[in-house]
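Batch job 17 of 40 flagged for manual review because the log was empty.
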Amino acid sequence: MRGKRRAPRPPIPWRSKWTPAVFLAGTVAIGALVAVSFRVKEVVVVVDGERRPVRGFAATVHDVLADAGVSLGFGDVVRPSTQAAVVDGTTIEVHRARPITLTLDGRTSRHLVTATNVGDALAELDIAPAAGRLSAPRENAVPLEGMKLTVYTRRKVYVVAGTTRLTSRTTARTVREVLRQKRIALRRGYQVTPPLGSFPEDGTVITVTPPRTVAIDPAVARLNWRGLADCESHGNPQAYNQDGPYYGMYQFSMPMWQAVGGMDLPTSWPEEEQTYRAQVLYQQVGGRWQSQWPNCGARLFSP
């Protein structure tokens, strides 16, 4: 009896003549994928403090920024430079320029800064942290389109008003504001130097005097007013004689002081003001000093 014929064995795939070709193609594809994966870079772009991860094949900072849609304008700062090569893990910083119109102590200038708040902008402009008075708080943002910023620094000025001598550290915008801060009252006709509306720079000396409307003849100014004052009051601007009463270096009575344009008490004013009023008095009486200074007037003509 004949036996049954066996069925043919199925072909084994890895024994196929195509197996080497398929294996080679797969190996090449995997190698290509691996190579491509090594070329992909993970980069971080930081624009004004905002982080943006960027993944791609860009070779330079310029290309990364283009891929991230970041355009650059005049004055923008990029670190590293746009031509620098990037590697995986590179961080690129972009600081956008912002225009600032700065008025510093009354003087206006225009600048570009990359700071994003007022405090950092002041530091970038090299303005001391204790600048004084600002038109905007330090924590305020500087918008991309720019802003106006007014700064008044703290300055040292001096006030001379009569016998009052004051030193003021101020951020005042005008001489008038300094006097108001120091509570210096101004009466009608008072003269102020520099003018009330002027800006008090560091070191300014502000003087307040009653109006001087009478010109002093040079010959009168050359008389020995120091000798007269030494005789009348030992040259003391604060001298007081209750018998009159009489005040100051030249022992004015109040009616006579007011007649020559004096304000307040004679002792409220320095030597220069008292001497000016005494010279006005001498001119008003036509040089007849005997009625004003009977005991000491002759000193005016001594050497």
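Reviewer: the log was empty due to a logging misconfiguration, but the result itself is present. The chain has four domains: 39-95, 98-152, 155-209, 218-301. Unflagging and moving on to job 18.
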